[in-house]
Amino acid sequence: MSTVSDSQTSTSIGQTMPEIRVYNTLSKTKEPFVPLKAPQVGIYLCGPTVYAESHIGHMVGPVIFDTIKRYLTHNGYEVTLVVNITDVDDKLIAKSRERGVPMSQIAIEMTADYMANLKELGVNQIDYMPRATDHMSDIIQFIQSLESQGYAYAVEGDVFFETSRDPSYGELSNRSTDQQQGEGGGAAARKRSPSDFALWKSAKAGEPAWDSPWGKGRPGWHIECSAMSHRLLGETFDIHGGGLDLMFPHHENERAQSNCCHNAPMVKYWMHNGLMRAGSKGKVGGKSDREANANTETLAEQTEGKISRSKGGGGLADLIRNQTGERLRFFLLRTHYRSTIVFNDEGLEEAGTSLETFYRFFDRLEELTGTSFYDLKAPRRRDEGKIEAGDNAVLIEIVKLRDKYFAAMDDDFNTGSAISVLFDMLRTMNRHIDQSGITKDSPADSSDVQVLLTAAGVLRELVSVLGLFEKPPVQAAGGDDADSALAGELMTLLIDLRKSARENKDFATSDAIRDRLTALGIALLDKKDGTSWERSK
């Protein structure tokens, strides 16, 4: 298979591409991102085993790689994103017996739940969601190829991959032979080596089964992804993603199967996201905490506290209703994708407070200019979003911040640093409003208003790349609409009372209102065009 040299930075149609660097788990270094067949890019992300409702940990990978596809597309690449569904597995079979319903029914129900949750978190960039049961012929043909080449052997209806035949086995997870262990149980006695793993499992009484050259049975977990990725993306594709907990044995085994079957590398870049763990570690999202850990935590440290159903990680639909999908997406993107995400109430509250900062600016923009932030047109490509700053100090600063944002994203998709730049943009635009004295009566064609709208357009471009603020916010169930409206009316009343007290030089009452609100975590913001309020904690 022909490949593209790492020194090549342009597509076949002559378009210059940005210098993006990607951390490759296989090489343990950041490498220049040069797709095999630029501008086409193929990405495969390991999806869920659909035996129970989704939890928040299941959203980490999809949100990250949805964002990565958005970013690569914005940079001119043509991206195909595949996320598989494992709908045949020991856990599904056990759940089927527990509930007394067919395995296929459980898979359909839980797949629908998974997809509904993806939609709420704004994950809409997936091109294919193949199910293992729809690719049985591909899986069987893949196993036959491995067997015919001497990489696999059959024993009493089971088929195993012989890891000793692959000299590179263990390189991805950096494990020695004595650290490699395949399936145990009854299969262990039939294997030639403890590290060999199952490609096909012979049928047991009452289990779902498919016909095969080795008798009735079902595929092993690892072979499913190799067969489906080959069908949709080819023998070698650009990026394989997944959580760090999948590096071994799942991705190590996938890589061995595919490399040996096709005598070619399965993947050019292996990308692994950090895991989510429940904790009470204070605020989540501080730059020093997030980014310092991106390269230092070991696999054991990241997987030890992994959030899962056993640790109370269920009820995602309820969590979305209480927090909103946008808040959860923002919460996940505030952390560099290779870092551990500490999931706690403090982190969610901080994410909500941060979002309110954006929502207030959007309200202010519309009040002053009559233009909704959500109606601003976002450029589809990076080169289309460039603006001419001239000698305007505000736009010069916005251009610098836009460059800083792209520098962060070019450096291994650092969404945490990119989001920090967005806050700098907000401060720049709010300062421009205050210093230029823009009011709702300012002419729409005035230079100050046009500068503001131009800067807001840049912000619109950058948040769209992250999949944020695509539509006006919805009210979380935790704050009832009627209660929220009442709270807003009460704040308006208190602001009016304070204004009246100040006009009457009753500063004691004015200060008392401000101080009591401060104690409740509400800050009053006195500006030229009136007083507004925000939560300060």
UniProtKB/TrEMBL annotation:
Belongs to the class-I aminoacyl-tRNA synthetase family. SUPFAM superfamilies: Anticodon-binding domain of a subclass of class I aminoacyl-tRNA synthetases, Nucleotidylyl transferase. It is found in: Cytoplasm. The keyword Aminoacyl-tRNA synthetase applies. The lineage of its organism: Bacteria, Pseudomonadati, Planctomycetota, Planctomycetia, Pirellulales. Zn(2+) binds at C46, C225, H250, E254. InterPro entries: Cys-tRNA-ligase, Cys-tRNA-synt_Ia_DALR, Cys-tRNA/MSH_ligase, Rossmann-like_a/b/a_fold, tRNA-synt_1_cat_dom, tRNAsynth_Ia_anticodon-bd. GO terms for cellular component: cytosol. It comes from the Bacteria. Binds 1 zinc ion per subunit. Its cofactor is Zn(2+). Monomer. GO terms for molecular function: ATP binding; cysteine-tRNA ligase activity; zinc ion binding. The keyword Metal-binding applies. Its main location: cytoplasm. This is Cysteine--tRNA ligase.
